[in-house]
């Protein structure tokens, strides 16, 4: 029989992360596009991020037919978090600026590029990047590229930049607990052998 899971955070009930998930408001609206292959991953950080943010939505799929409508949210400027050569580094809002609808592809950069290829309205968005950021604490999953962050870390970094002095660090609490739990489960020794560079 499968272990009972929490219907909200989808962790086993014995390891429910909900008490650690904050309830944060943001000017920026987040739209996270998740490839179906990421849904069942034990470290589904996009889901944790959306649970902790009021102004955020998670969509799962490869081709998003209603994307043009999703991107045309009144009162927002849509842009895509995608660090290629065209991307402009995010900085804090000027007082008179409209807030961003920040579209974040979840998964590897390879999957993100595929999403762009399959969804022309996504590829047409102006692109933004996080600039130089601190290394990931997401030690369990090999970062495909130098400086790659987990989705939840990328979101916290972006919101911290845009909405300073408000901070979004609390969003990482369930993520940190999840990582600690994974490390404990695999054994510290194995972890150090496999993951420390
Ligand atoms: Zn839960």
TL;DR of this structure?
It is built from seven helices and six strands. The chain has helices at residues 45-52, 67-71, 109-118, 120-123, 151-163, 173-186, 188-195; strands spanning 29-34, 56-60, 77-81, 88-89, 100-106, 127-129.
Give an overview in words.
With 197 residues, the chain is α/β, with parallel strands linked by helices. The chain has one domain: Alpha/beta knot, CATH 3.40.1280. Helix content is 31%, strand content 14%. The chain is built from seven helices and six strands. The chain has a six-stranded parallel sheet. Helix 1 links the parallel strand 1 and strand 2. Helix 6 packs across helix 7. The radius of gyration is 17 Å and the shape is globular. The N and C termini lie far apart (38 Å). It binds zinc ion (ZN). Zinc ion binds next to loops. Zinc ion (ZN) binds next to loops. Its EC number is 2.5.1.25. One of its GO terms (molecular function) is tRNA-uridine aminocarboxypropyltransferase activity. One of its GO terms (biological process) is tRNA processing. InterPro entries: DTW, DTWD2/TAPT.
Write the layout of secondary structure elements.
Layout: E1 29-34, H1 45-52, E2 56-60, H2 67-71, E3 77-81, E4 88-89, E5 100-106, H3 109-118, H4 120-123, E6 127-129, H5 151-163, H6 173-186, H7 188-195
Parallel strand pairs: 1-2, 1-5, 3-5, 3-6, 4-6
Bound molecules: zinc ion.
Zinc ion is lined by residues 6, 8-9, 11, 16-18.
InterPro entries: DTW (IPR005636), DTWD2/TAPT (IPR039262)
Pfam families: DTW
Keywords: S-adenosyl-L-methionine, Transferase, tRNA processing
